[in-house]
TrEMBL record:
Belongs to the short-chain dehydrogenases/reductases (SDR) family. NCBIfam families: SDR_subfam_1. GO terms for molecular function: oxidoreductase activity, acting on the CH-OH group of donors, NAD or NADP as acceptor. This is 3-ketoacyl-ACP reductase. Keywords: NAD, Oxidoreductase. SUPFAM superfamilies: NAD(P)-binding Rossmann-fold domains. Pfam families: adh_short_C2. It comes from the Bacteria. InterPro entries: NAD(P)-bd_dom_sf, SDR_fam, SDR_subfam_1.
Length: 285
């Protein structure tokens, strides 16, 4: 439908998972893409993060859709490097209209050190703030800011830290970040409303990505097993949702991202939207 023709969209965490899906779906609708990713591991995070080859593959998929793409390896915690990457990309592509602050990590497990709390919080909250604040100078009326939240991250902090929800210090940092993003995006939406720049947060349930499919996550869902397999974990994944599904797919979230990026949502702002198979209702959120 080319609902985004003439727009430039910036996506963090674009090398794989939800970020890649968002980049491709936005490109399919006519947007040129700025694809950013750390393309490297963070020590406290118990599963490997994306690589440069992953980011290159995202760029190829955007080009296959017939759109321009600028990709860069950058850590969203590094405000100076991020400012340069955003500025260079905007100069090359001629503007910025959509920001998808999607980069995130989820360090899980009872053995995650205190640094896991700060790493999770710094990527999942400070990194989002850096991305949005550095982008604001390039956004005009009609722009859209879209933030990736989390259903699991909205659980009570005591559950996140105790293991009743996501486990340990990393889970607690993740949860704090997602809770603060909910309030931050409401306040930002009110502040930017007079400029007709809208801000919304999407809270997915389990998503079929690398963040979901790793041993620390499997152990979180199956603490009864020392070495649970994907099949073991998928037996209990559906317990999160009201619908009998283990998770949603990245494209299920991307469809909403496209809507929020398009002018069809021109009066939708300050919303906390769940793509969750009923998980929020089931968890009382």
């Amino acid at each position: 439908m080319q609902r985004l023709t003439g727009k430039v969209a910036l996506i963090t965490g674009a090398a794989r998972g939800q970020g890649r899906s968002h980049a491709v779906h936005l490109a399919d609708e006519g947007a040129d893409i700025v694809a950013l990713d750390i393309c490297g591991d963070i020590e406290t995070n118990g599963y490997p993060l994306a690589t440069r080859s992953d980011l290159d593959e995202t760029a190829k998929l955007v080009e296959k859709a017939g759109r321009r793409v600028v990709s860069a390896v950058v850590d969203v915690r590094d405000r100076t490097a991020l400012k340069k990457a955003v500025g260079d990309a905007v100069a090359e592509l001629g503007g910025l209209h959509v920001v998808v602050a999607n980069a995130g990590i989820c360090p899980l497990g009872p053995d995650v050190p205190a640094a896991g709390f700060t790493d999770a919080f710094d990527v999942d909250f400070v990194g989002v703030i850096n991305t949005i604040h550095l982008s604001l100078a390039h956004l005009d009326s009609g722009a859209s800011v879209i933030v990736t939240g989390s259903i699991a991250g909205l659980l009570d902090m005591k559950d996140m830290a105790s293991g009743a929800g996501l486990q340990g210090l990393g889970g607690a940092g993740y949860a704090l970040a997602k809770k603060m993003l909910r309030e931050y995006t409401k306040g930002l939406a009110l502040s930017l409303g007079p400029k007709q720049i809208r801000v919304n947060t999407i809270h997915p349930t389990n998503v079929n990505t690398d963040m979901m499919h790793n041993m620390p996550m499997y152990r979180t869902f199956r603490p009864d097993l020392p070495e649970p397999t994907r099949e073991d974990a998928e037996l209990v994944f559906p317990l999160m949702q009201a619908m009998p599904i283990p998770y949603v797919e990245p494209e299920d979230v991307s469809h909403l991202v496209v809507y929020l990026a398009s002018d069809e949502s021109r009066y939708v702002t300050g919303q906390q939207i769940f793509v969750d198979g009923g998980a929020g209702m089931k968890l009382g959120l």
